[in-house]
Amino acid sequence: MKINLFLVASTAGVVLAGPKWPSLEPKGHHWLAPGPNDSRSPCPGLNALANHGYLPRNGREIDINAIRTAVSVAYNYAPATFDDAFKEAVDFKLTTTGNASTIHLADLAKHDNIEFDGSLSRNDIFFGDNNHFDAKIWAMTSARLKLNDSGPEKLENYVTVEVAAKAQAARVVDAKKANPSFNASANQMRGGPGTTALYLTTLWDDKAGAVPKSWIRAWFECGRIPYHEGYQPPATPLTGETIRNMFKQVASFQAKAT
């Protein structure tokens, strides 16, 4: 099963004013909100890379080498982890750059190629906009992830695989009820749990065996890599196999819940 960076639900543009703490961010990679002419995608991971300058900040004319370098330096993924994802976007002929070997980030919003119904943080294309952060959709996801809850116990401040898996499954149930044109395509069926597996893998805290809630909020709500909340890339490179193993865990929890 191919799970890729472009199958993650996302914020396409930053809608919340993010903090400016360049001293806590890698040199040359401070966070900046995208401008009105910058291109952003339905993927928080890619958007954050552009907002921090690991990808071109304008989000335009991105090639496979730029993706390789960005995911390796920022998230410590093995450079070729998302090669198939990029090639998939090219094969679908999503690019509007005029160059078959490059994409604009917004090209990834074309429905049911890489993007799909039931996103964690935006509405379905049926309602008119599948490429921008939707506060109402995210509020439901955030509540299920209990992102606003905290407590003295360490794990009260983290999201486990089980909680994340159930939140994603619940979002799909909601989308099916609200959207009379909901498309349960093969892309959607693998992409839903795949997006959850991907954000868990990318933001995973090995010591806790879970993901800090504050990291999830920064990533989804602000399109920001959560350096100021303590994020550092893992010491061991992440790979497609890492994502697939997480996918299996997510799918297992969802199967138990049905």
UniProtKB/TrEMBL annotation:
Signal peptide (from-to): 1-17
Source organism (scientific name): Schizothecium vesticola
Source species, domain of life: Eukaryota
Pfam family name, one: Peroxidase_2
Domain called Heme haloperoxidase family profile: residue spans: 27-252
Family named by the database record: Belongs to the chloroperoxidase family.
Cofactors (names): heme b
Keywords: Heme, Iron, Metal-binding, Oxidoreductase, Peroxidase, Signal
Protein name: Chloroperoxidase
Record PROSITE patterns: HEME_HALOPEROXIDASE
GO MF annotations in UniProt: metal ion binding; peroxidase activity
Matching SUPFAM superfamilies: Cloroperoxidase (SSF47571)
InterPro entries: Chloroperoxidase (IPR000028), Chloroperoxidase-like_sf (IPR036851)
